[in-house]
Give the backbone structure.
Amino acid sequence: MYHNLTILTNENEYRQFYINYYCNTDITTHYGIKVSFKSDQFEHAFFSSKSRHKKDKSIFNLERAKRITWIKKVLEDQDVPIYQGWDSKKRIHDATRRVALVTPDGYVVVIRFIKENHARFVTAYLIDNPSVLKKIQSGPLADFQ
């Protein structure tokens, strides 16, 4: 396993942990990008949809939440490959997004640049479909590598 799991009692405890651990400070990636976190990203990062097609983010995802501290660890880990992100609306790779992938666990952290050296956290998740892993790995590596 990539890192220790964080075991808390309920959704509200995870939400408060996220706010205290991430939203009140910036994290700097190993390649020098400051990453900020907004409290309203909690739902996007730690909820999942009943159906992949609906994308309703209606179910608290405990497996994602247990990996809450992995986000920082991934962003600071110089051994994690960094890929360009995917813009699903335009259906192209987007150099303003970064996808950091941890293997063999298949944990993904996505950030989006808002300025040259400043990004915002978008989401993090554990890959549950091998085709998603193949898609990420088939994309271009981020240009700073």
The first strand starts at residue 27 and ends at 28. The chain has one domain: 11-138. Residues 11-138 form a domain with the Nuclear Transport Factor 2; Chain: A, fold (CATH 3.10.450). The mean pLDDT is 89.
